[in-house]
Design a protein that fits this description.
CATH architecture of the largest domain: 2-Layer Sandwich
CATH class of the largest domain: Alpha Beta
Helix content: 25-40%
Number of strands: 10
CATH topology of the largest domain: Nucleotidyltransferase, domain 5
Number of helices: 7
Distance between the termini: 51 Å
Strand content: 25-35%
């Protein structure tokens, strides 16, 4: 059995879910541009536990979205997750934020590209094939007229996430489709974290850090 608390704070959506064997028991989330994660995260955890009538001593793992995403949002989520792991002596599971976002895609495409808005014309993205396996690693990149051309020239591509809007405004092709409103959520984390739990794919709680892609940001500021 896997009773897992999932925390998603990488973007504007503060999201918490409780799941047993990958099945959702309770969800709380609020998507606001004000980033109220510090005020809401622990409240949402308590509400999920109360709704499911599960005690903290019944948890078997804590899962957290590891990034990329908002620096502050990631710090809040990872700090809470690590604190719970230390206090309850539980394993930590890290879920890539873009993989979590891709789990919301409905339909079949040759390529799926979850994208998070960074700033100006920049996005964080990863490229997945039709089976949602990673074929190009996560990158921080500036979007231009030639971005992703090698994928959509002869194949269907679906973009999902907050970065999809700026891509849609720039790229126009019959093979492209978009999901503009999707945000990463702890709901989709339930199945992803359960898969990792079964494989015992855990992080080192003491040394785990969020995936910021900070090097890219620092380089851009120097230009």
């Amino acid at each position: 059995m896997g009773m897992i608390l999932n925390l998603e704070t990488a973007t504007t959506n503060c999201s918490v879910s409780l799941a047993k064997d990958g099945e959702l028991l309770a969800v709380r989330e609020n998507n606001t541009p004000n980033y109220s994660h510090a005020e809401q995260l622990h409240l949402f955890i308590a509400e999920c536990m109360a709704e499911a009538q599960i005690g903290m001593n019944e948890l078997e793992a804590i899962a957290v979205s590891k990034g990329p995403g908002s620096y502050t949002g990631l710090r809040i989520g990872v700090s809470a997750a690590k604190g719970l792991c230390f206090a309850l002596e539980l394993p930590l599971i890290a879920i890539p934020t873009l993989q979590n976002l891709a789990a919301q895609i409905n339909g079949t495409y040759d390529y799926s590209i979850p994208v998070l808005d960074a700033r100006r014309m920049e996005v964080y993205s990863v490229v997945l094939n039709g089976d949602f396996n990673e074929i190009r690693a996560t990158e921080a990149e500036v979007i231009d007229d030639y971005s992703f051309q090698e994928y959509y020239r002869s194949k269907t591509v679906h973009f999902i996430g907050s970065g999809a809007e700026k891509i849609k405004a720039l790229l126009h092709h019959k093979n492209l489709s978009f999901s503009l409103e999707a945000v990463p959520s702890a709901k989709e984390m339930a199945a992803l974290s359960h898969q990792k739990y079964l494989k015992k794919d855990f992080e080192d709680v003491a040394y785990f850090e969020p995936y910021y892609l900070k090097d890219f940001v620092l380089q851009t500021k120097k230009k």
